[in-house]
């Protein structure tokens, strides 16, 4: 992990949830996603951000955690993918995932973007 990514992650660790969702939108834009929209808070059906990459629609569940993210986030992303009729679902976090979350994500075909993946994407997008 390069120095710039480490610095950015340290900043992200001090964000609130809203700031992390906003950062996720900015990151997705820098990565070439389009039609990026934040959902409406408490009635979001497990989705914080909607976006498209080419013809593929995505839902993102953003989790700003100090500890590993559990299975509930994966279940929420799966529900949100179904509700919004999207092809892909992603749980993105500044942390890592529990073994149960990883297992569920494999069975449900949910992408998990953990701290290491986030650092890699930050470097790729230069944000």
TrEMBL record:
Cite a single GO MF annotation: DNA binding
- Gene3D superfamilies named in the record: 3.40.1350.10
Question: Restriction endonuclease type IV Mrr domain spans which residues?
Answer: 12-122
Top-level taxon: Bacteria
Q: Which organism is it from?
A: Apilactobacillus kunkeei
**Matches recorded under InterPro entries:** Restrct_endonuc-II-like (IPR011335), Restrct_endonuc_IV_Mrr (IPR007560), tRNA_endonuc-like_dom_sf (IPR011856), Type_IV_Methyl-Rstrct_Enzyme (IPR052906)
Q: What is this protein identified as? A: Restriction endonuclease type IV Mrr domain-containing protein
Q: Which UniProt keywords apply?
A: Hydrolase
Which Gene Ontology terms describe the biological processes this protein takes part in? DNA restriction-modification system
């Amino acid at each position: 992990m390069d120095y710039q990514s480490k610095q950015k992650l340290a900043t992200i660790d001090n964000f609130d949830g809203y700031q992390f969702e906003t950062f996720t939108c900015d990151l997705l834009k820098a990565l070439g996603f389009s039609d990026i929209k934040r959902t409406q808070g408490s009635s979001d059906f497990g989705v914080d951000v909607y976006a498209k990459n080419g013809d593929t629609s995505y839902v993102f569940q953003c989790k700003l955690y100090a500890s590993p993210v559990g299975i509930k986030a994966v279940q929420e992303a799966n529900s949100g993918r179904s509700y919004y009729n999207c092809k892909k679902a992603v749980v993105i976090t500044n942390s890592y995932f529990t073994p149960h979350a990883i297992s569920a994500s494999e069975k449900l075909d949910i992408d998990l973007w953990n701290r290491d993946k986030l650092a890699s994407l930050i470097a790729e997008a230069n944000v």
